[in-house]
Structures are given as structure tokens and as C-alpha cells.
Write a structure and sequence with these properties.
The protein is mainly β and about 425 residues long. The protein is about 5% helix and about 50% strand. It has a 16-stranded antiparallel β-barrel. It starts with a helix and ends with a strand.
């Protein structure tokens, strides 16, 4: 009862914050490579000028934890697993998977005043090369983002794999990937598709308004039963998201606000009846970032249905309603040292989950993450504590039982951005 009151109070506070200010989408401001000077333009004449750069993030962390986490240990902890160790709980490890390489290129001096950009990101969250005693030290690369973008005046057109409009911001964390996404109020993903970003007022305006629209590949559980081997999302209505982003960074008090909607329609095949049934996915998300002097507040809240493919409903697939929210506060003691605290939860409807998911299923999850961070320019050092508390519906010999689990992790990490 007390937990419910705390959660509802948290929602009210977060929505009050969101109703006035919120966020701009990650990766919309393409890191343009240094623009050629007038001499380079004169020398090139009518020929394009291409500039490239190599950037990246290297992250190394060591951690201690006393339990087992969903999706994995180290940097990708999400929820506390239904089965926790009864003894020998202490676990020590290291993780380098929050490391990625970014290659960018920009072509200037194109016909009709267009500018073209390209970006490829490769990270090392792709698992391990093989099995055995040396697998943990052999990380596999994974494509993260890859797209081509055309830019002219106030319009950007992007084709490829990019973060969708629903991904407005990530909580600050040195050691954890996408903290809270799929587990504590964060939803959205990166998908191949067509993305359009349109600024709606002049470049000189102090308050900037942008409209984002994207149509991208559908996805669901895959082709387990569909007779032609197709994904239920790919044969339905493609995923579509539209978002409005407003920000003002011209004064000491800086704010950003966003409202994003999602729609898709899957076609679920029933091998018994040989029929297809439409399953609509929809979601609305509000988000915010507020910054004044040495204080930062940020967060988002969503409500949605049938959105496991965009990390909603605790990554469970089915006709499931749910909601979630996260918020993070940061305070900088000086230019080097800052303290952060994040809380987030995800709460799918219990009855929907029990109908849609066979076996053990997740009914509720919340995380608490305080962090101390020391900044040395491109280098950050942090001490993070991560606690997950998860409510499960476990099934044993066809008997269902509610179970609550928890797990804790302490991580010391450092990252170098170049």
C-alpha cells in the first residue's frame, strides 16, 4: 500500500515537471565535422568537399553484486531475476561492453545547397566469441547506428538505422547501458527507417520548436509459427512515431520539453485456426530536462499497449497494457564532482501479463541508482550503486505464485570520450 502511494506521488511530481518543460531527442544534432573555411571552398570550386572524423567512447568498469540480474550482469543490469542464489551470493567481475566507435563524414558544397552526412556506430554488446574459459575476454562487435542524412535549411531527412523519436534522452550513467530502458520507464529503440526532422521557427528564435516524424520497420516475436517465415510486425502496419520537441537554451534556466506518440499494427498468426489477428501497439510519452546553474532534473513517463518491441511492458510481448516513468536529479558540487540519483519503475497490467506470457513473467520492476561522478574533461570516473526490486508471477508445476526478488550492484567505472 505504501509502495503504491509512493509510486503515485512520484507520477504526479514527474507529470507536474513535464507539464512545463522537457526533452530533445538524442542524436538529432549531428556532430558536424569541422566546416571548411572560405579558402577550401574557393579551391574546390563546384566539387564536393568531404570531411571525416573518428570518435568513440571507451568504458571500463569493475563491479560487485550480490544477486542475479536480467539481461546480464555488469553494464546491462535491468531487473532482479526470479531465481536468486541461496548461497555464494558474492560475485566480482569486469565489463568493457559499454565501448563503441563512431565514424562520421560530412559532404559540403553539394548542388542546390544540400549538405550530406553519414554516421556509423559499432559497439561491443554483441556477446562473446565462442564459449569456454576465454569467452569473456573476446567481445563481439554490433552495429548500433548507421544512416545517411541530407540537410538543407531547416529540414533533415535521414535514411538508415537511427534512434526513433521516442528515445528522447538516457539517464546519466558512466557504467550502465541505457539505464531504465526496458526495465524502469524508458521506452524506444533504434530501427531502420525514414526519419524527417523539421524545425518550425527561425534559427534566431530563442525558443526552438521541432517536429519529428519517422516510419520504420515493424518487429515482434519473429516467425515462430507464420507459414512463410515472416515477422508479425513486418507484415502489419509499419511502426510510426511523431514527436514535438521544444527547447530554450538562451538563458541561465535551460529547458527542453517533448511529447511523442507511437503507433503500429502487427498481424499475429494462429496456427490452429490459420487466421491472422491484428494487434495494435500504441504509446504516448512525455519527457523533460531542466537545468539551472549546478542543478539538473530530467525524466520521462509513458503509457502504452502491446509495445514489447520498443522496450515497453518489461520487454514482454503480448496484448499488455502498462505504464512507467523515470526521473534523475543531478547536483554539481564544483566543475569536477557531481552527485546523481535516479529512480524508475515499469508496471505492466498484471492480468494482461498472466494471459500473454507463459511461465515466469514480470509484473513490476523498480530501480534505484545513486552515482558519484568525477569529471576530467573527456574522462569520467564514477561510483554507482544499482538496486533492482522485481515482482514476479512464477509458475511451478502449473501452480502460479507471486514472488518478489531484489539484487544489488556496486560498480566503479571510467569512460574516455574522444
Amino acid at each position: 500500500m505504501i509502495q503504491n502511494k509512493v509510486r503515485y506521488l512520484f507520477i504526479i511530481m514527474l507529470l507536474a515537471l513535464i507539464s512545463t518543460e522537457a526533452i530533445a531527442q538524442i542524436d538529432i544534432n549531428f556532430p558536424i565535422v569541422q566546416r571548411p573555411d572560405s579558402a577550401e571552398f574557393a579551391k574546390a570550386g563546384n566539387k564536393p568537399i568531404v570531411k571525416t572524423s573518428l570518435n568513440g567512447v571507451i568504458t571500463a568498469s569493475g563491479f560487485y553484486q550480490n544477486g542475479s540480474f536480467g539481461m546480464g550482469d555488469g553494464s546491462i543490469t535491468m531487473w532482479a531475476n526470479a531465481s536468486q542464489p541461496a548461497d555464494k551470493k558474492n560475485q566480482f567481475g569486469g565489463d568493457l561492453r559499454k565501448t563503441w566507435i563512431i565514424l562520421k563524414a560530412t559532404a559540403y558544397n553539394l548542388p542546390d545547397n544540400w549538405t550530406a552526412s553519414g554516421r556509423v556506430e559499432i559497439d561491443f554488446l554483441g556477446g562473446y566469441a565462442g564459449q569456454g574459459g576465454f569467452a569473456d575476454e573476446n567481445l563481439l562487435p554490433r552495429l548500433r547506428v548507421g544512416y545517411v542524412e541530407l540537410h538543407k535549411n531547416q529540414t533533415r531527412i535521414r535514411l538508415g538505422q537511427a534512434w526513433t523519436p521516442m528515445v528522447a534522452t538516457f539517464p546519466a550513467s558512466v557504467t550502465h547501458f541505457a539505464m531504465g530502458y526496458g526495465s524502469a520507464g524508458g521506452i524506444g529503440f533504434r530501427n531502420p527507417g525514414l526519419f524527417v526532422y523539421q524545425n518550425l521557427n527561425s534559427k534566431q528564435a530563442s525558443t526552438k520548436i521541432r517536429l519529428d516524424a519517422a516510419i520504420f520497420r515493424g518487429s515482434w516475436l519473429g516467425a515462430a509459427s507464420e507459414p512463410y517465415g515472416r515477422d508479425a510486425g513486418e507484415i502489419g502496419v509499419p511502426q510510426t512515431e511523431v514527436g514535438v520537441f521544444i527547447e530554450n537554451r538562451s538563458k541561465a534556466f535551460k529547458w527542453e520539453v517533448s511529447l511523442v506518440g507511437h503507433y503500429d499494427r502487427k498481424q499475429i498468426y494462429n496456427p490452429l485456426t490459420k487466421d491472422y489477428t491484428g494487434l495494435t501497439g500504441k504509446a504516448v510519452q512525455l519527457g523533460t530536462i531542466l537545468a539551472y546553474d549546478n542543478i539538473t532534473l530530467q525524466g520521462s513517463a509513458y503509457t502504452g499497449r502491446s509495445i514489447g518491441q520498443i522496450w515497453g511492458n518489461l520487454l514482454q510481448f503480448g496484448d499488455i497494457r502498462g505504464n512507467g516513468a523515470w526521473a534523475q536529479a543531478g547536483y554539481a558540487f564544483n566543475k569536477r564532482l557531481s552527485a546523481w540519483f535516479m529512480y524508475g519503475y515499469d508496471n505492466p497490467n498484471d492480468g494482461d501479463v498472466k494471459k500473454a506470457v507463459t511461465g515466469d513473467s514480470r509484473l513490476h520492476n523498480q530501480i534505484f541508482v545513486p552515482m558519484l561522478k568525477y569529471n576530467l574533461g573527456p574522462v569520467n570516473i564514477s561510483l554507482e550503486y544499482f538496486r533492482a526490486q522485481t515482482k514476479w508471477n512464477t509458475v511451478n508445476n502449473e501452480v502460479a505464485q507471486i514472488k518478489r526478488t531484489s539484487a544489488d550492484q556496486i560498480a566503479l567505472g571510467t569512460s574516455f570520450m574522444f
